[in-house]
Structures are given as structure tokens and as C-alpha cells.
Amino acid sequence: MTPTSTAARDETPAEVELDAAALVFDNDGVLVDSVEAGNEAWTRWAEEHDQDPAHVLTVIHGRRAADTVADLLATEAPDRVAAASARIDELELETAHRARALPGAHALLTALAALADSDGLRWAVATSGGRPLARARIEAAGLPVPAVLVTAEDVEAGKPAPDPYVTAAARLGVDPAECVVFEDTEAGIEAGRAAGATVVGVNLMAGPGAAAHVVTDLASVSCHAQDGRVVVRLAT
User: Fold this and answer.
1) Any catalytic annotation for residue 10?
2) 175 catalytic, yes or no?
């Protein structure tokens, strides 16, 4: 996948064009804003499980909740870890209705859904969240639910392992190396790169890291179908 770039004089942002077989999006932090609700749920969980909330909030982003719980309660009995994992799932679902679409997400996904119907354009969401939580947040944000939604239950290893993006590509019927992935966390960027995809950093929580390209939000992204593929334009 070879990008092309154009930049006007003065301070006009550069435009990068990418040709891909499919687009795959992370959910939280890329499509939906769930930070406040998620932090509230995890703070309650931390207090219930004798954990430091401030520390917990530094380690939760981009990974499956079950993996985070297992790390935080590494010395606990398996049944306690399982119960604690079920509890955070419950707490996050309680706040899922507060999720809101991030800038540009509604317009872009609505366009993608229409192009999927008219031109067979392929796109998916690959999230570290569980399926009930992912669907609840997408629906609360008023976004189209993709035909391909890869969640925590669908993979053996979560981000930063490549499994979520490899699985999404397989379900879309494309090579992961032919995908453009949109991510906001270090773990997600690592997962996309490990899968061989081109990674675009969006709403980044930290620095650009290993992302190939960076945009402020999805309002800087547009696309159109061409010969069974998708052409993506990034205003960087």
C-alpha cells in the first residue's frame, strides 16, 4: 500500500491518500467517547477490589478488561479473578448509554455503510471490549453497527497482539496488510502493526508512537470506493 501526499504552500495541512482493501476501526477513543463513563466504572471496580483507582486508570486503555483484571489481581485465586472480571463487565454496561460519537465518526461510518451497500466496500470494528458492551456503546452513540464486529470474545489474545485485526481481516476476506487500521492507544497501534496493517493514529492518548500517519479525529478522514477497493484521504 503506497501512500501519496500533497501539501499546499504556507500552512495548509498535508493530504495523504491511501489505497486499501478494507478499513478497520477501534471503537473506544476512535469512534465513541466512553472515557468518563469507563473511568467511573473502573474507579468503582478498583474501590470494590482494594486497588488504587489512580493506578488502575493508567493501565486500562486499549486492552481487554479480562487481561487487565488478571494482571491487577495476579496473586488472587482464579475464581476471584473471574468474578472480578465479570464485575467490571457489569459496571461498564451500566454506563454504556453515556457513550457519544467522537467528531467525524457519524459522518464517516454512515458513508461507509452506504458504500458497503452500493459498492461492496469492506469495513469492520475490532475492539478490546466485550460484544454486549461494544454494541451498546455503538448504538448509544447513534453509529451504524458494522456487519463485522470483532470483540474480546472472538480472539485468543487481545491487543497488543495482532489477533483482533487478523480476525477482522479474515472475516472481511482480505489480507491484513491490505487494511488501514484506525487506533488511539499504544496497545492498539502495536496490534495493527503486528498484523501488518497501515495504522492511522486518531485522538491519540499519547504520542504518535509507531503509527504511520496521524490525524486529529475522524473529521479529517474521507473515503470513496474505487474498483472494489477503498481510497482514504487523510488531512494530516
Assistant:
1) no
2) no
